[in-house]
Structures are given as C-alpha cells and as structure tokens.
Known about the structure:
alpha/beta; Aspartate Aminotransferase, domain 1; Aspartate Aminotransferase, domain 2; 2 domains; 12 helices; 15% strand
Amino acid sequence: MKTSLTDFAVFGGRPTFAAPLRVSPPACPDWNKTEVQLRGIFERRYFANHGPLVSKLDAQFAVYTGRKHAISVVNDGLALMILAKGLDLQGEVIVPALCRSGVFDALRWAGLMPVPCDVESDTGLMSTSSIRKLITPRTSAILGVHLWGRACAPVDLPTLSEETRLPLLFDATHGVAIRHAGKSLGSFGQAAFFSFQEGEMLDCAEGACIVTDDELLANKLRTIKNFHPGHTFAPVPLRINGKMSEAQAALALVGLDELQHNSDDNMERARAYAEGLTAIPGVRILSGMESPQIIVDIDPIDFGLERNALFNLLEKENLYAQKFSSDPIQNAAGVKNAFGLAQRIVQLPCHPGMTKEDIDKVCLLLRTIAVHSARISQRMEAKP
Amino acid sequence: MKTSLTDFAVFGGRPTFAAPLRVSPPACPDWNKTEVQLRGIFERRYFANHGPLVSKLDAQFAVYTGRKHAISVVNDGLALMILAKGLDLQGEVIVPALCRSGVFDALRWAGLMPVPCDVESDTGLMSTSSIRKLITPRTSAILGVHLWGRACAPVDLPTLSEETRLPLLFDATHGVAIRHAGKSLGSFGQAAFFSFQEGEMLDCAEGACIVTDDELLANKLRTIKNFHPGHTFAPVPLRINGKMSEAQAALALVGLDELQHNSDDNMERARAYAEGLTAIPGVRILSGMESPQIIVDIDPIDFGLERNALFNLLEKENLYAQKFSSDPIQNAAGVKNAFGLAQRIVQLPCHPGMTKEDIDKVCLLLRTIAVHSARISQRMEAKP
C-alpha cells in the first residue's frame, strides 16, 4: 500500500499494476460453441440474408425480452436509423444530452434533428419535467436512454408518451441482461433496441436487436434492414443494408446462451467495486449492479482532485480508465447537468480477466488517492 | 435431350435437373484457413475497432488495387453513404438507371437526390453523352457503375469529370477480381468501392472496401466509418458505425488469398457458358468473362419467348435463374434502354458446386427451348 507521495507512480513510485489494466469486454462467447455454429454456416454456404441463425436469434430474443417481435440488425447506430424510418419520423427527436455521439449522428442520417435534453445530476437520466420544456409542434418522438444499467423513467415516460401521443423509443444498448421490476429493459416504449457490440454483456462482433409488439412496425423494420427487393414485408420510405450476418447471429446465439452466467459473474465484480468504493469521499458509483460498465462520478471538491488529474494519475499506475465524450453537446444550451457530469465520470475496468484482488487494488488505490488528494494536487500542479 | 414438347417439365416432362440448381455464391473461403484467423480473434479478445486484421486487409487491398488507401467498411451501401459524406456532397448525383436499388437508397440516406441516367442498350453501361444531358447546377457528382465485369467508360468518364470538375466515383461492387487494360477496376475515378458480399468473388459475409489515392479523403472516410470520438483523423460532417469487424476481415483476408484461384475457376465456367450459348438466336451474354455473375439478355423476338415465360419454364426444369429489379426506375423518365434491359435479362447459376456438364445442360436446355420456342409459347398461352 502506498503511504507516502513518492509511492505514487506519477511521482516515481512503482505502478500499482505490473501490466496495463484496461477497460475490456465484459464477456466473450465460448470459442468451442462458436466454432460449431460457424462450421454450420460454411457447410450451408449461406452467409447473409434472412438465414436460419438470424431467424433463430430473432425468435429466441423475442422470448427473452417478452416482446412479440425481435429484429436483429448489424449495429445499434443502424438500429436507430432503421427505427426512425420505420416510424417515418420527421422533424425533431428529444434525446438525453448525456449519451453516445452515435445517437445524435444516427438521427441526423435519418434526416432528423436531435434535441438534447438535460439530465438529472444524480442519475444521468432524463426526467419528464425536462422533456416537457422541449416539446414543440416539430417534435416527432422521444428517445429515452437506459443508461449504465438503470431504467430511464420507465413509468413516467410511457405516461407522457400517451398524453402527448408522441412515439416513445428506448435505447437499451447497455441493457441486454438487465431487468427492471422483473421485466426486460426492452419492455418499455413502442420499440427498444439493444446493442451486441464490444463492451456489452452480449457481444457478437457488432450487432444489435430491435424489439417491439407492433406487428406492422416489425414488418417495416424487416423490410428496411434489407435492400433486396424480394424481401418486402410492408411498404417503407427507404431501405438500407442493415442486416445482421449469419456469423454475427452465431456469436449472438452462443452469447445469449451464456448471458445469465456472464451477467452473474459481472455482478460479482460490481459487488466487489460497490464494497471497495464505499465511503470514499467524492466517489460515487453511478452504474447499476447489473451494468456491464462500472461508471464512477468523481466530485472534484470532495475527492480533492479533478477527474482529468485522477485519470492521468491512474494511467501512471497502469490503470487505464475511460472518459465520457461531451463532444455532441459541446455547443448545446440548457444541458448544464449533462455537461457537468460528462466532465466528472470515469469508467473503470471490469471484465472476466480481472480477479477480486485486482478490483480490491483499484479501490484501495482510489481510497489512498482520496486520503492524499490535497498534497497530490499541490505536487502535480507544481510539477513542470 | 428433349425432342418433343412433352419432354419439357412445364408440359409434364422430367425436369432437366434432379435437384434445384440455384444462383449461388461464386466463392466461399476455406474453412480451415478461416478457423485459424477466427481463433486468433478469440485469443486477442478483440472484435471490432481498427483491429489488426482490418488494418492488414486495408494494407493488402491497397496494394492489390494499386491505390494509396483502402478503407474497409461493413457493406457497399454504407460505403457509398460514407463516401458521399466524405466528399460532403449536396444536391444531385448522376447514377446509371440500371443498377441495384441499394445505390439509390444509399444516396438518399446521405441526403442526396439520385438522378437516373439511361444506359446503352448493348452494354447496360452509361455513356458520357447521356450524362451530359443531365448535368445541372445542382449536380454534385457522377457515380459510374462497372456492371457485370465490364468497365463503365473508364477513359471518357474521367475526361468528363476533369472538364466539368464534378467528382467521379465508381461503384465497382462486382469487380473485385477484375482488371481493365491491366489495371484494377478500383483504379478509376476519385474513389471507387468494391463489395465483399454474397454473390461476389470475395465474400466475407457482408463487407466492402473503398479505395482512393486522396489522403485527406481517406482520413475523412476512416473517421466517418467509426463513431468513436477517439478515432478522429480529419473533420467530418457526420459519422456512422460503418466499420468492418475483425471477423469479416478474417474472411476477407482468406478470400483475398484465394481470389486469383477462385477467379480463374470462375472464368472456366464463364468460358463454358460462352461456348454453350454461342449462336442461340436471341440469347446474348452481357457479362464479361471475369464477372462473378452470368448475365444473359433474352431478345423476346429472336428467342421467341419473353424473359418471364422463359423464367417460369426454367423453374419447372429445376433451374432457378434470377431476374433484375427495375423497381427503382419504375416511374423515372428518359430511361427507356435501362427499363427495357431490366425486363430482358436473367442471371444464370454459376458457382463452384456446378460441373462443366451442368453448364452444358443449362446451355443445351436454352438451345432446345429456342428451337421449339414458337410452339412452346403457343402451348403455354393455351394452358389455363
């Protein structure tokens, strides 16, 4: 344990971790099971359109989320683009200011104007009161984002949607294994989509899935995601090559099979973090226990160091955390909470390659930094 | 051999093929080589962004096409969307009326208006004289399409582009293995893109690659195809998740390795078709010898049967040809040649699962139909 300032790597001490510890995927499908599936694709010589594995995945995923229809697509950006065209949205869509830049861009590709809505500073989630202020005659839909394993207003938002008759969509990218009040995060809104990309609990080397109970919408989505004129299930304004390949579906099926196990495993690590970070001044875990990502809010006053200074200090200890980009809302007005949070949060490594001891070391490091933060800050500023 | 009308399956005869013969991929990567690559991905636990296999593919493909830069992306629709944003095109783009509907849709996703240009009736390709008539102040680019293994005006189009200062892009989706005057089909225009999708000589379960000599454009394309704020190589108007996964790159690397062999193999089959279809009245092969697709133009007068009637007749013989969709130009004006050709062409099966005898049987069947076409036509019309 570090007891004096010079024990910290930034001041010449030995790094806490001998090898770099990075943010890494929380799960990876078993190779042997995957190989069996992939061999089958090669034997069938059928790689792409509406193949048997994609159909199987759609059927299994509909059951898993308790929705009538599941439509697998190539990634979550295209899921949102396809969904926007499926609903033939025009004009503005209200989105939380604290979300991945891909959400803003996907809406723009679909010819829509994303309107960033500020979030609650304690959760990072939108509330209906902030949304109400942004509704205009140009508003065509509300996109809720279930962030870091927490449901975004799963009762209030549907009520607001009914009241305003605005379609309600949910981005549940990080929530494939997560339940709220016993229901899948995909259960809420007219449609929702999950990501199966790197960093999620189910990773099929890029991939996503849209779920809905609306049969006409499902048929439109199935038509839009495939540009082959032969595969038309409903009239649509525009199509795209957004289909999931059989190889992605193979990985996703293996991942779905292992999902509960991997999620339980992940929760063990989240518990270790929750225990280890208890009562460190200025350190607060924002992510839910089932989240595939450990997101920590660093209060610069209480912790005694700004997030960026902490970030640099951790890097010297061979601990590579990740920041959150506030690029998409750089010039947006009225999103103070979101912008503030984006400057404070870090994602800590949490993956199957880490032991309980690794997590304890991360937490102890943060605790030790908190104890010495005033002097560290002083000395870091004094350094050339 | 069929000698009387009742020998044809449509009139109760025995089908020419015992099992269905379908249009199928012209190549499929070797499983054992693919397995080695895929195992590597699982060992590295690195599936997606700017991975080592994608980098290797980009480097090898730039050399293969003789271009300075190659940028792999997820599919050819997104290749065109990304290219349009990379050049920041606005307004209209002139495209051949005879091309896949995906081209029209991709341009629309990029906020552009595709302007269909009629094609030459003998080749299916655009000529500069038809393009000139469509150039207006709103024209922002010309998209040439190298169709069915033939280069689209590879000398005239660059000259027109220089003269008009309109950017010239080439869709070389079907032409990965094809050379024109000793150069890759990717050599022409400011940028070109190839498809690695099902049906092409290199098939990586969806995939595409853009090639260009323009370094700034290449950096923009690399930025646009990846929505991660960390990977920014040049300022761009919009980004998308359009990256190729490591798994796709694994298949593509194996496919690139086998490309010459598979292409030679394919040419053997094309030669067998060229011989077998010689001097059948009203039957003309439109595709080049290196084309992954055998495209045949059926002249209804000289052949004695309309394409659709022939199509139905072939199906009864267990020979499943493919039509060409004219949906995107259904209501377009001034595209008479393209529309006419779309009603006349069929794609015949041509894949490694077929023997020389299979191809001879297909050709003999077409020859026999031509001989009896008048009586077949009469009897088909008489049937209820």
